[in-house]
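Data availability excerpt. The first of two example chains:
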Amino acid sequence: MWQLTEKKSTPVYQQIIEQIINYIQNGTLQPGDKLPAERKLADYYQVNRSTVVHALDELVSLGWVLRRQGSGTIVNEGNWGRSTTPRVDWRSLFTQEAHPKEPFLEKLQQLLNDPEAIDLYSGELPLSLIPDFRFPSYTWEELLLEERKQSPLGYRPLQQVICQRIETEQKIKVSSNQVLITSGAQQAMFLLLQVMLQSGDSVAIEDPSFLYSLPIFASAGIRLYGVEMDREGMRIDKLEQLILTKKIKLIILNPTFQNPTGSMMSNRRRNALIDLSRKYQLPIVEDEVFREMNFNEIPPSLKELAPHQVIHLGSLSKIFGSSIKIGWIVADQDLIQRLSEAKQMMDFSISVFPQVIAHTALTDSRFEHNQAVLVGTLKQLAQAFLKGAEAIADDWEVSEINGGIYVYLTWRHQHLTRKDWEIFLREKLLIAPAFLFSNDTMAMRVNYTRMTKQTREQFFAKLQTISKELRRS
């Protein structure tokens, strides 16, 4: 295992780095695995100890391994601060995964089609809750006519509707040249990384965050740093420490019904974040895909508080499912123009058809009514979940549900390991453990909207059984 079989012209320390990263990516080395001691590695590779030390120092700086006093060198158990290799090995890009596989996720995905499994992992509403709307029939000729309403920024009627909704809901007046239509929020995020950052740059996100495991950051060579959260949201003091020590270039967060915790950033914390971003002249990317699923009055969006400091991301996929994969970026005109040019260069064109569907959905006369019905149904589902959660309150701390589709459950007892979460897969209870969003292993995200009365009863019965087993372990 610890041998360099191929002769290469690159320095030996670089070859050692590439081999160890390859072992981590293909699963030969797992998170938390301990590497041999420096002297042993030097013997295995038949090199000076200084060569091994150089390689390990580089791996530490890239975030792939950690050195702990008295414990030696271990494979990093998380993604915080991880960067790509110093040089691109093009051949490896064609022969291996670009991002380490998550064993738990692979096993979970195999169970998604099992009729006996309870899917509380998927990040969508069940089909029975997705609002219905009438889609007019179009001839091919009529669709071609609609195609003429496309601009480099997107389908103009859809842009105009988005502008109207933002003005109504967030009290911000934006024009069509400040809105770029994308194929979902993830494409929007990818474009922002390509235009605003360079490989090696650092980004601050919430800890935990759904962004944690997205491969787009690793692919772009971006280092992610998590900012601790409390009941009011991202902690500003912790964020400022990161800005000063890690040279943060961008702040990305999900302040309204945060994924995975379902929490809401307070109005006071939002203003403090804006003040800090202005102090250090750092742009903020605000992901607001859950905003319209609110049960009560919610704080102003960050975009509303600071229109020129904040880049706003929206999407229809949470309300209408991934079948309508339409998102948008709202930002100042100069940035939107640069993003549009990048989108065209990458040939990220979007067919007019899903944009026409999105426009039809948003302008349907029953949309507001259907949305109100949906929110009312979600509120009932949330209340039913919290009522059922009383049975497991001694073992799990359950977050409030004020909107969105997620609830976060935190284990109250001894430290859990990744292996402990295999019990949920054995019981065919598909949830999202915290280690998919952070280095934490003590909590889980549950999509409460996917529960019927029957599956809710099954969930809490299974969870009580699992909790007893966890307490004994």
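And the second chain:
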Amino acid sequence: MSTAPMPQFPTGFRWGVSTSAHQIEGATAADGRGPSIWDTFAQTPGRIGDGSTAEVTCDHYHRYAEDVALLTALGVSAYRFSIAWPRVQPTGTGTVNPGGLDFYDRLVDELLAAGIDPVATLYHWDLPQPLEDAGGWLQRDTAARFADYAEKAAARLGDRVRLWITLNEPFIHMSLGYGMGEHAPGRTLLFDAFPVAHHQLLGHGLAVAALRSRSTSPVAIANNYSPVRVLGDTDADRAAGAAYEALHNRLFTDPLLGRGYPDLPGFDPDLIHPGDLDTIAAPIDVLGVNYYNPTGVRAAQEGSPLPFDLVPLDGYPRTAFDWPVAPDGLHELLGWLRDTYGDALPPIEITESGCAYDDVPDAGGRVVDPERIAYLDGHLRAVRAALDDGVDVRGYFVWSLLDNWEWAEGFTKRFGLVHVDYATQTRTPKSSYTWLRDVIAASREGSAR
């Protein structure tokens, strides 16, 4: 961690934290909520690392006021949460479930009363199970169902949500959920999962129109990005790097910003119906950037099912997820987005950035996490460097407010600024929470001068 003072950020820079519904809400049988693909996935033996489910997790559904109080004390100006599609439409279609939307009404009003902007993500991977039973995102109809859900959510909340995010990390959902089978719904289609990419993007474009029919608030998407580090100096290595960059970083950005799809082996152009690319490229107000680490790539070994091999990057500290801690990658990524997309690139907000460590309370009950402080310090300085380079970055959201149920890892990975004892639901702010609170306060004080 640098010993230099944290540089100032622009007036109005959005300081926030992020969570997702399935990871923190619990109350999976409350208010008429239907099952999601993650409920089904977690009930399948061997799918979740510790055998747990998200039936209770952080019990945010009942403790949201306590969690908003934590946000208030932290001093953030925005809270990014997700709306659980199965709470709003238990089967993914038809009329809304009023009890489900009532919860988000209460949460949004609590945030506004605290002076915190509600930032709502409509889809953070929790597809209603009946839609998956009908084919899920492999089916074009799911895009239309998503737009209908978006319209219904905006009809109830659109006067108060300050920023809408349609999809969270569609690349990760496609690749791990439908391509590799490591996430719900657990399909192993490899490149046959490309229809999931197109239908998610089509759903995004249709949802943009639906949201704007009911709300005047800005609209965004949150993409996961990873700078590509080619390890090797052969033409095959460089070709592998280009293939991975097209898949991870460009597949969900090129069409979004009006360039159509990059050239990818196995992508069926017959997926694209007349008008689809125009729908997908409907202008957005913000590009959400989720960043965790760069990716090492080299030429695929003989017999590999993919056109590249992923290899560990040496020379960086590692998180409990064994991800490299590389703030320079965030600076590199922001410059790549600016240089690649130019005037087509909307303002950027870092919608997720964070790290998992094995945080344990000490004998006095404190949770001291210097590694997370160093991580945040480095990544905030990377954002400031990108601002100095002329990249239009408007905000930074830490993943995450709370330790939570980390998908296929269950409760084994802790990303929170606040430690959660899952047995007692006791919340304990970590030293990183205090550090960030002071950074936010100092930045506001400096901007006010």
